[in-house]
Design brief:
Layout lengths: L8 E5 L5 H10 L3 E6 L4 H11 L4 E4 L11 E4 L8 H9 L3 E3 H8 L10 E5 L4 H14 L6 E3 L5 H6 L7 E4 L2 H5 L8 E4 L7 H4 L2 H9 L8 E5 L3 H9 L7 E5 L8 E5 L2 E4 L11 E5 L8 H16 L4 H10 L8 E6 L2 E5 L6 H8 L5 E5 L9 H7 L3 E6 L4 H11 L5 E3 L7 H12 L5 E4 L12 H16 L1
Parallel strand pairs: 1-2, 1-4, 2-3, 4-5, 6-8, 6-9, 7-8, 9-10, 10-11, 11-12, 16-20, 17-18, 17-20, 18-19
Antiparallel strand pairs: 12-13, 13-14, 15-16
Helix pairs in contact: 5-11, 5-12, 9-10, 16-17
Length: 471
């Protein structure tokens, strides 16, 4: 039992996916744990009762007041740094960790050699890339798991009974903000685009938190050749001596890069004489689905796996075995020669731009909660691909106005409703606009909560509507 936690008064900020495991682990290590939570709903009360039965103190409905005697705060990643709780902590000299920081410090607690972390962040594509990476590592015969922001507790991974060889770790900008001592084996930043700026305060602060993933890397910092900002983060990082910058590109790779040559994924980074040689890893057709942004995800995953010493054959086998999660550019059905694709997970303009780029002729279903986004650049880039557009949701007018400015010739159907039944009408209108060979693409570029519980429910509604077309 680590002496640093025995008898220490630790405040856990927030219940939920990260807070409950953190409270349990800290209590088990002998800390005196108090949990504070903003909400006081039925779910919170159920979680509180479970923790109180263990001897943990829980305060519901007051997440702003610093409990007396607090020596350390372990916070849920989504709590903003500007909360009064953290202001009070700073004034009192109390350190603040996230659950990722706690997990990092608890590695090897059971005396086993800690599993290295291969870490992934970026505005879009994190979950898919981490899942691809885990599939590749498993194909190489390694004991691994996809953990972190993907919804699987890192604390469970580092303190549980399973002895892992390596972990594939998805990290959000929130988690990285609260993880000052994290030092990964190798890490990748997939892309950078404005997101969560209300939390971080500026694009510069958001990028800086993403860039923390490269600090202290031992083997490779993997970056996106097409996104200069990711390379800039590598240049700014303080890494271990000998750590390499490794790029991935959808074009022909240069030395120290992974890329695509004549339908093949190839490696010119982890080979002998990378100036003259390249190693075939897989075919583009092995990537599911082989949309450009997903091929980029596969290259990033392959780069991290190769940095860990995984053989080329395992990259191919892992990509072939990988099945993407629902609502990520998922083909639902073909109806009357038209493909219907669900990319409900495209909740911001950057993700939607990648989705639109995957198809030649599109009837686009878009709209929802814009979260402060603007759509001029997105529409300008996609205009030539649009057969038509169907708009739904609370902030659809923002997209309609961008279409009027930059794609005035594209037919637009504006559905003035925000009930869940609007999706069926949207799909019916999209069918009317589509021609054989087109793709009807749900890529909303907006959050879903104006009409649906989450993007999963929105995607399910789209898929059900498509099934009704073919019935």
């Amino acid at each position: 039992m680590p002496s640093e936690f025995t008898g220490k008064h630790v405040t856990v900020a927030g219940l939920g996916v990260s807070g409950v495991p953190a409270a349990k682990v800290l209590h088990g290590l002998g800390a005196r744990v108090t949990v504070v939570n903003d909400g006081d709903d039925e779910r919170a009360r159920t979680q509180a009762a479970e923790l109180e039965a263990l001897g943990v103190t829980v305060r519901l409905g007051d997440g702003d007041t610093l409990p007396e005697g607090t020596e350390l705060i372990v916070t849920a990643p989504g709590w903003k740094p500007t909360k009064p709780l953290f202001t009070a902590a700073a004034e009192a000299g109390v350190p603040v960790w996230g659950d990722v920081e706690l997990a990092w410090r608890l590695r090897g607690l059971d005396g086993r050699k800690p599993a290295p972390w291969l870490a992934v962040t970026g505005t879009n594509g994190k979950t898919t890339t981490v899942q691809m990476l885990a599939s590749i590592l498993k194909a190489a015969g390694l004991r691994t798991a996809a953990v972190g922001n993907i919804g699987v507790s890192l604390l469970d991974a580092v303190t549980g009974d399973t002895g892992y060889d390596v972990l594939a770790v998805e990290l959000s900008s929130y988690q990285l903000h609260w993880a000052p001592s994290l030092r990964a084996h190798s890490a990748a930043v997939l892309n950078l685009a404005p997101d969560h700026l209300d939390w971080h305060g500026s694009m510069e602060a958001y990028a800086a938190d993403k860039g923390r993933i490269y600090e202290g890397n031992r083997v490779a910092c993997v970056y996106n050749v097409a996104d200069r900002a990711t390379e800039d983060l590598v240049r700014a990082a303080d890494v271990e001596e000998g750590c390499r910058a490794v790029g991935f590109t959808l074009g022909t790779p240069g030395p120290s890069q992974l890329g695509v040559v004549e339908g093949l994924l190839v490696d010119r980074a982890f080979v002998e004489d990378r100036h003259k040689n390249a190693q075939e890893l897989a075919e583009v057709a092995d990537v599911n689905p082989p949309a450009p942004h997903n091929v980029a995800n596969a290259l990033a995953a392959a780069g991290l796996a190769r940095a860990f010493g995984v053989p080329a054959a395992a990259v191919r086998d892992g990509l072939r075995a990988f099945t993407p999660d629902a609502h990520r550019i998922a083909h639902v059905a073909d109806v009357d020669g038209v493909a219907y694709v669900d990319d409900s997970k495209a909740t911001n303009t950057h993700a939607t731009e990648a989705s639109l780029a995957a198809y030649e002729s599109i009837v686009w279903i878009a709209g929802g909660l814009a979260k402060g986004a603007t759509f001029d650049e997105l529409v300008t880039g996609a205009a030539k691909r649009l057969r038509g557009v169907v708009l739904i949701g609370a902030d659809r007018a923002l997209i309609r106005e961008a279409l009027a400015r930059h794609a005035p010739e594209v037919p637009v159907v504006d559905l003035d409703r925000t009930d869940t039944g609007a999706m069926l009408q949207a799909v019916q209108e999209a069918r009317r606009l589509a021609r054989p060979g087109d793709t009807v693409l749900l890529a909303p570029a907006c959050a879903s909560m104006d009409m649906f519980t989450n993007y999963n429910q929105r995607g399910d509604a789209f898929a059900q509507a498509v099934r009704e077309l073919g019935a």
